[in-house]
Amino acid sequence: MIKKRFPILELDTCVKAQRFKVNYSVIKKNELDLVDEHVLRLLNLGSFTARDLATFFGFDARETQTALHDFISRNEVSQTQDGYLRLTQEGMKYFKGGLDDPFIKAIAEYSASLCFELIEFRPLGVDENPDNSDKGFNAITLDVPPEHVSESERHVEEKFKRMFRELLEKNMLGVNFGKYGTDIDLYMVKSVYKYSDTFLRRTETFELDSEAGRIEKCLTPKYEEPEAYTQKLHEQLRYKSGRSNIKDVIAFADSINDEFVLDLLTDGSLNIQRLAQWLVDDNREGGVIFAGGLNLTENRKKVLDAIDEALQGIDTAQQEQLPEMCLLLSSDSFNLYSKEYYSTLIEVANHQTVPGDNKARCKTTIFYPTGRRRQLPRAANFLEKQINGSVEAFEETEVLSPIEAIILEQRLAIVIYHIKDPERSDVPVPVGFITTDNDQVHVITERIRQHKYEDE
To answer: Domain ranges in the chain?
Structure first.
């Protein structure tokens, strides 16, 4: 088998974060006045009289006295009885560390605005773009210990002290210390206070490794992968995935005579290596093979192209006779935890309008699984405001829970099974097909209608 990795799923995670203002002071190297620097340089080389210095600088007696006054008053330069000037022990501190260039260490105060996620109190860079506009909307929210929220300022102070050098080197403090940056040391954290709550939202991608025969989470190069984050993500995925749904998938696949999916599940579990082989060969009979979530770029293009082709020749003048397009969402799908998935649904639902005159080529309804409550969640209400169509709640049966489908009446059927096999994958694996075979479209439509209403 050719080694290849296939994108399977994209989902969003959400972690609580907070923004803090940190007031701190540093001990830093300061540059000296040019005259002061050269006075110190000369005296570091040997003993000179005030007349020697005046000659060197071209000063008169008053100017020479002014240049020496502060050094003498601070006991950094002394004058012998015969008039020679020398550096004292205090004065030699300017050359601490064997440096030829004199410097002074001074305490300076600064403040920094920083954002920390609350699992490991990792400081967030600008690339990670914390944002509280969505507040965890359609994402998997990772739990944060309550103490991390209530004691966040104390944790941030400790983290800031430990990471000061790293924060400085990564330019996260908003201060440019110039060429002396390597000589900066943290002196004191004076205060830390939280001024806003926010969220860190990340998109995680899962791929099928055809050689290893397993589903793996991809590492994101620009993000760090702290162990605590990875562990909490694994726990949440396992919790939300729950039990295997293979029996339900087999029941639906058998009802539409889908031998392709039945062959993947012959031993009652998902044969990932066989799926990988089919993806490499791409040789499904009776329709276009479809693996991965609807929101993946390649899959979205396949779907939009298929809908375009199926809607060719529709007479938009007869609006009351337009065919119906049904989008059936799956409660087992982890696509529901992807912001991009909702954007894809909006694009699919609105794609059926005629470019230029905005006339619909079909009537679109999105069926959103809500369980027994029959109350549309915030995500569904968001969809309804964005699409040229309607969103309806439905209580799906167990057989339909794994099934996502797009049915264009008598023209097109797209079926995606979200297969949950916790022994082989932390996430449901989306697999399906696209068909324009009229008989197959009719069978799929009838089976969905049958299962959709059998408990109503």
So the answer is: 5-26+106-239, 32-102, 242-453
